[in-house]
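User: Sequence in, structure out. Go.
Assistant: Echoing your sequence, followed by the C-alpha cells.
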Amino acid sequence: MRRTPREWFADISLCLCAAGFSVLTFDSVVPHGQSPAVLLLDQLAGGLACAALFLRRRWPVHLAVALLVAGTVSHFITGPALVALFTVATCRPPRVTARLAVLAFAPFPVFLAQGPDLGRPATASAITYFALVAATFGWGLYVRSRRELVRSLHARAEQAADEARRQAREDIAREMHDVLAHRLSLLSVHAGALEFNPGAPEAEVRRAAGVIRDSAHQALEDMREIIGVLRGEGDGGRPQPVLADLTRLADESRAAGARVTLDQRVARPEDVPALTGRTAYRVAQEGLTNARKHAPDAEVTVTVSGGPHQGLTVELRNAAPPAPAAARDTDAESGLPGGIPGGGQGLIGLAERTRLVGGELEHGRTGADFTLRAWLPWRA
C-alpha cells in the first residue's frame, strides 16, 4: 500500500527524531574510552535501525521485538526501538501491546534484584530508559484511544445523518400520503360518478366536474409545496392546517357526497397547540379518506373533545362494510367503484405521526362500526 504524503512526513520525522535522540544522549550513556571500531559498529547499527523504521507500518511487532533485543547491546538503537514501541501501542490491539510491554520490562526485575547503586551513572541511565519505555507505551495508548474516539464520533455523526435523512424521507412520505390521498380520493369518487352515471342531470355533472377540477388543483398545489421543501425552498408560505380547519375538511367531504357529522366539543379550537391541532387534523383527514375508500355510503361521525392537561381526543366512527363488499369492483347501490386503491400505509404513518407527538392511536371494529381514535397531549 502506497504511503500518503502525510505518512511519508511522519515516517521521516520519527526517523530523524530517533537519530537525534541517540546522538544527544550519546555522551551520558556510552562509556568513555570505547574503541573507535566498536563505536562505529554501534553507530552503523543505529543507522540501520533508523532506516528500518520505514517498515514499521508493515511489520510493527516484528520490528519492535528485533529492536528491543538489539537495543540491549547498542545504545544507538534505543531511539528507533522507542519509535517502534510507540507504533505498536497506537496501531495494534491492547493485548499485543501488553505482551510487548512484558518483553520490554523483562530486564527490570533483574535490574532491581541486583540492588543498583543510585549514585552510579549507569543506574540513572537504566532508570531513565525504563521511564522512557513506560512513557512511550502510555503516549501510544493515549493516541490510540483518541483515534478510536474520533472514529466513533465520525461514525455516530454519519449514523445520525443517515437517521436524519431517513426520518426526513418518512416525514415527506407521510405528509404526501396524508395530503394527496385525501385530494385524490375526492377526485376518484366524482370521476367514478361521472363514469357510472353518464345520464346524470347537467347540474350534477357540472358540480362533479367542478369538484374534480378543484381537487386536482389543490393536489397540484400540495405537490408543488412538497417539491419546494425537497428543493430547500422553504415551506412554500402556505399555512399548515390546525384544529379549526376541521370544519372546512368536513365541508369538502360533504361536497364530495359523503355524509359527515362533525361534533366539535372544544370550545376554543384556536387555543389548541399548533402541533396537536395539525396532528388532529391529519387523523380526521385520514379517517375520512379511508371511509371514502372502504365505506362510501356510510355516515361518518367525527367527535373532537378534550382540554388543557387532559389531552385532545379525536374519534371517527362509521358503519363497517361487510368483508366481501370490500372486494367488489362496484357498489350495488351507488354504482361507484367499490375499492379505491390503497397501499395500507396510511394508518401506519398516522400511528407514527401520533407517537412522535406523544399520543396514542387505536383503530379497529367496535361491534358493527369501525372506529379510529387518537389521543393527543394538550399542554397549556
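User: And one key feature?
Assistant: The chain has two domains: 5-157, 168-376.
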